Amino acid sequence: MNKNIKENENIHELLGYERIKIIQRDEMFSFSLDSMLLANFIDVTNAKRIIDLGTGNAPIPLFLTLKTKALIYGVEIQEDVYDLAKRSVELNGFDEQIKILNRDLKNVYQELGPNSFDVVSSNPPYFKYQENSLINKNDYLTIARHEVKASLEDIIIEAKRLLIDGGRFYMVHRVSRMSEIFRCLEDNHFGIKKVQLIYPKTTKEAMMFLVEARKNKASDIKFLEPIYVYDGNQYTEQVLKIFNFSKNN
């Protein structure tokens, strides 16, 4: 067994990137295509400090090393998931560029500094949590999928606190909550700048979307070319190019 992993763990390539590995456990929420689409969407131009809120086992920070030399933080509240992220960073030799923190994302600005990040990203839980919510018996999956530890508003408020004036916030979420997300962003003085719809197939309705918002800027929304994930049973060329980001740049 590889000395970097523990029992019931596996080392996987981060999609098509042979030089980037990620440690996962079967009972935990594994990194998803959503995270890769978000990381690809993020504009890192002139960014010196980047932070990913609710980073899981750090797929977004790992991907971003292909795009930038900026200092990247990942914040993860679950200790076991944080441990996977930290060891994944170490496995790839990114200790100097990526810093993983085992923290509640709420009020992390008090430790890292208000108005001190150029980019904030989050692939948050998609579902609101209520007493009658249909949740998974596995706590790891429940926390990953439902707003148990942090709500949508918590994440947006923390992004506002962390970002410099004009700083960029990036999120992936479900289309069914788009109007709520736009309201929350504008209520917290974010201007919505870019939106990209994600369709599972060309014959289906959009299920997900990517959004870029900027702190203390006016909304001026541009809808980018949509992403179609599958053509029949195969990934589309759009998605395959993201999988091979390092070979295309």
Topology (elements, then pairings):
Layout: E1 9-14, E2 17-25, H1 33-41, E3 49-53, H2 59-64, E4 71-76, H3 79-92, E5 98-102, H4 109-112, E6 117-122, H5 139-145, H6 152-162, E7 163-174, H7 178-187, E8 190-201, E9 208-215, E10 222-223, E11 227-231, E12 234-235, H8 237-243, H9 245-248
Parallel strand pairs: 3-4, 3-6, 4-5, 6-7, 8-10, 8-11
Antiparallel strand pairs: 1-2, 7-9, 8-9, 11-12
Q: Averaged pLDDT, please?
A: 85
Strand content: 25-35%
Multimeric organization:
single chain
Distance between the termini: 34 Å
Spans where pLDDT lies below 50 across 5 or more residues: 132-148
Structural class: alpha/beta
- Helical stretch count? 9
Describe this structure in words.
- Helix content is 29%, strand content 31%.
- It is built from nine helices and twelve strands.
- The strands form two sheets. Strands 3, 4, 5, 6, 7, 8, 9, 10, 11 and 12 form a ten-stranded mixed β-sheet that branches. A two-stranded antiparallel sheet has the order 1-2.
- A hairpin with a 2-residue loop joins strand 1 and strand 2.
- Residues 132-148 have low confidence and may be disordered.
In short:
The chain has 249 residues and is of the alpha/beta class. It has helices at residues 33-41, 59-64, 79-92, 109-112, 139-145, 152-162, 178-187, 237-243, 245-248; strands spanning 9-14, 17-25, 49-53, 71-76, 98-102, 117-122, 163-174, 190-201, 208-215, 222-223, 227-231, 234-235.
Give me some keywords for this one:
29% helix; alpha/beta; 249 residues; two-stranded antiparallel sheet; ten-stranded mixed β-sheet; globular
